[in-house]
Amino acid sequence: MRALVTGGAGFIGSHLSELLLREGWEVAVIDDLSTGREENLPPGVGFYRLDLVDRDGVTRAVQDLRPEVVFHQAAQASVVHSWEDPARDAQVNLVGLLNLLEASLAARVRAFVFASSGGVLYGDAETIPTPETAAKVPLSPYGVAKLAGEHYLYTFQQARGLPYIALRYGNVYGPRQDPQGEAGVVAIFGRAMLAGEVPTIYGDGRQTRDFVYVEDVARANLLAAQALLSGFRGQELDEAAFNVGTGVETSVLTIFRELARLTGFSGEPRFAAARPGEVRRSALDGARAAQVLGFTPAVSLGEGLARTVDWLRSAA
Ligand SMILES: NC(=O)c1ccc[n+]([C@@H]2O[C@H](COP(=O)([O-])OP(=O)(O)OC[C@H]3O[C@@H](n4cnc5c(N)ncnc54)[C@H](O)[C@@H]3O)[C@@H](O)[C@H]2O)c1
Fold first, then answer.
1. Fewer CB within 10 Å: C terminus or N terminus of the chain?
2. Mean pLDDT of residues grouped by 10 in the chain (316 residues)?
3. How far apart are CA 316 and CA 308, in angstroms?
4. Is residue 93 part of a domain?
5. What is the pTM of this model?
6. Do residues 64 and 83 both lie within one domain?
7. Peptide bond just before 129 cis, omega within 30 deg
8. CA 30 to ligand 1 centroid distance, Å
9. Does the Cβ of 1 fall within 6 Å of ligand 1?
């Protein structure tokens, strides 16, 4: 099988590329290295350094590669930047997506897997763990673009026959997550603790998230592609979307304590004012991913955090 992984030099995309190579796939990556790094690319992948907004470049690369499956991980993935420059966010996350969709149709791609976000689509949901059918209330340009992206995909599937699945990730963590990034509380706290610095918790630390290990997320992508290649088609927006999480709420304080134990950090956190608009509780209901895709997370939080700290130590 031939795969194109966009964002393959990034955190999740590089793990996915590794998994696909191990499974015997041919893998090529499109990435502009805006947040990704060339050294994240596993040996054996083809690499196109390209901005997805460059329509001709994307068309040429996809024609050249003729992938059977596209895993679209590349994104302007920062909520903060999406407020600083909403137009650039839409350029990358919507125009870039459309460039890739057109090129995929022309190259007769058989399956398209899209990295969406459960964390930003559901907001403060009524039901926790939250099912795919919950109301969508994105609270940032980034969230709006993820939801609009799913709508584009659905329309392209129904009207033009491009089969897709959207995976709505929880809070993904693991090796190679950039501690400079905003989404990675595990990477940020872990790096700070190893450097003997006191991490800052925004709010009281009792806000919860659904932390899912990056290798599990990579496997969910592979399972989604296999489902599409076996004929799965979601007949509604929420049927073509699958939560990828553990269903477990973990507080930021719990993450702090676990990481403190693993790193030998003995200090207390510094507390700062909660960030406006921050969701209080979040956990994703993974029942449909289990039933339809056969996906259940395999790496426990304790194991995943230990592996992440090992990596942070070696990278320091
Ligand atoms: N990390 C999380 O917790 C999380 C949660 C929900 C959804 N997601 C989504 O998962 C995907 C991967 O996120 P990640 O955490 O690995 O982030 P990341 O920043 O490590 O990876 C994104 C990659 O896309 C590349 N990229 C960005 N803009 C590009 C452009 N215009 N053209 C080509 N390449 C471009 C970057 O260089 C980077 O390598 C994103 O779509 C993100 O929105 C991540």
1. C
2. 98 98 98 97 97 98 98 95 96 98 98 97 96 96 97 98 98 92 85 96 96 98 98 98 98 98 96 88 98 98 98 92
3. 12
4. yes
5. 0.98
6. yes
7. yes
8. 12
9. no
